[in-house]
Amino acid sequence: MRYHFCLLSLFLCFASPDNEVTMSWHEGLKLTWNDFKGPKNTKSDAVAVTASGITFSYAVRKSNSRIVDFKVVVEADFYPEKSWVVKELADDYILAHEQLHFDITELHVRKLRKQISEVKVSQDLGGVLNTLHQNMNKELAEMQQKYDTETNNSINKEAQEKWAKFVAAELKKYDDFTPKRQL
Q1: 24-50 pLDDT, tens per residue?
Q2: d(C-alpha 31, C-alpha 95), whole Å
Q3: What is the pTM of this model?
Q4: Average pLDDT in the 151-168 region?
Q5: Do the beta carbons of residue 25 and residue 180 sit within 8 Å?
Q6: For 30, what's the count of Cα atoms within 13 Å in the CB-facing half-sphere?
Q7: Pairing outcome for strands 66-78 and 52-63
Q8: Residue 17: predicted pLDDT
Q9: How many helices (H) and strands (E) would you count in the chain?
Q10: How many angstroms separate the CA atoms of 50 and 116, rounded?
Q11: Mapping DSSP to helix (H, G, I), strand (E, B) and coil, where does residue 152 land?
Q12: Angle between helices 92-117 and 125-150 (to 10 degrees)
């Protein structure tokens, strides 16, 4: 029996070093085991760990000290140097489980982009955007945990297939908010 655990790491773009290596989610990007470059946690029984999160930043335009416009960048990022694998125990099935963690991050990025597209300019814009980001990070963490629980960290193949179909359908539902349609 192979055990697999996933670590979800959420990073604010301001909290991670500028020189940190990231891979941003885009259509057609499929992770490979070569992308998992971090050192194995010797205290873990996991075969692989995926670190991904929502990178978020915004800028405002002011006129006469009042906010009149804003631009937001929201991306799903994978952190190769914080993700790791025990290659001799890994296979394509586990890699697909890890890819789905990254896809779940992208799903939440799209949901956040949708919410941001509905935000109206206000003088509390920063507070509104930060609250949306924090709430989406919480929702993302809850879904990642639910995914691992229901799939028993990829061991339950029926649940794994169910989740793969669910996430694909959800990504399609939010297709208008893909990276190519950045806010």
Answers
A1: 999 999 999 999 999 999 898 889 999
A2: 8
A3: 0.88
A4: 97
A5: no
A6: 6
A7: antiparallel
A8: 52
A9: 3, 5
A10: 27
A11: coil
A12: 150
